[in-house]
Amino acid sequence: MAATVTTPKTPMPSAIDLYNIDHLLSEEERMVRDTVRRFVQEKVNPVIGGHFEAGTFPRELIPEIAELGLLGMHLEGYGCAGLNAVSYGIACQELEAGDSGIRSFVSVQGSLAMFPIYSYGSEEQKQKYLPKMASGEFIGCFGLTEPDFGSDPSGMRTNARLEGNQYVLNGSKMWITNGSVADIAVVWAKTDEGIRGFIVEKGTPGFTANDIKHKLSLRASVTSELHFDDCRIPAENVLPNVKGMKGPLSCLNEARFGIAWGAMGAMRACYETALEYAKTRVQFGKPIAGFQLVQQKLAIMATELTKAQLLSLQLGRLKDEGILHPVQISIAKRNNVREAIKAAREARSILGANGVTLEYPISRHMNNLESVFTYEGTDDIHTLIIGQAITGMNAFA
Fold first, then answer.
1. What is the pLDDT of residues 292-308, one digit of tens each?
2. Catalytic residue positions?
3. Which CATH architecture has domain 21-134?
4. Is domain 246-391 in CATH 1.10.3720.10, yes or no?
């Protein structure tokens, strides 16, 4: 008789990692995940609800965020950690599990303020600004969107004219994360040479920043309007190595990459909260997790979270290989934010009335995701980017 072969029983996968995605990560990537997750659990979660309610950003966390090496972490040199794209994405995911405002701060600093200096700045500019930005000594912001030009930034009215060895900057920018707390602003403006990037330092005469009040989303984040009134910028503060929309659009792609990952953090936080609540909330004599409709909601959330994680992981691997195309970022940003909003709403329904309080993070995430749904390219814009890629036809004009 043939010997009986006993196949080891495969263990049940984790409810938070149904596809064992952890197995696909390197040891360094898992270390980044665990370190940032611990920081969020110990430092962000205990205070973020209060900051959201008060409409304030937890600036006291900036030194530790910097100490962890999260500012410009995907850039090389100049005091930056030089980690791979997947590690950066994982960090964004863990930060947004705490709050979108924390991830937005890190994204704006690294991908929108440091990245253009790193990619298009002079060596003098890099040496002057990047080490201080990596250490958190300097905070940066990114000025592209205007009151009348959001999805069509090429129509911007902000302009700069050259006078001797200075540019005179006039115009305004809207919905600027970190605006009023920033030490430097990377501002995009029209010139006789086309669109150029300018490094504008805080305190420059003619430069003012006013916070936008009464927000119902991203409340634990600073959002400002920037104004430039005959603001004189030294010519050496122009980013010398880029002209046209390539500069700001490349920065947006960097930020969109982080958003695609970050949205999963909010999604996971909502799913975990709903799962744990359903196991302990008793109705009709048993935990509501035992009812079919609740299990259906949880199963859908878990499946979409798994799909989003796999989508983002492949996105990161493509970026690390240097073969990432912008349309692939649009696919991930559009899908992951859409599904995160759906998951937040389903999770809220599981918690019932408890889901609308700050005792639980779900409504806070749900409100934040409404901003994430819009910024760095609205859902409609990413839909048209994908549509153009697959049909070859431009529907923007």
1. 999 999 999 999 999 99
2. 376
3. Orthogonal Bundle (1.10)
4. no
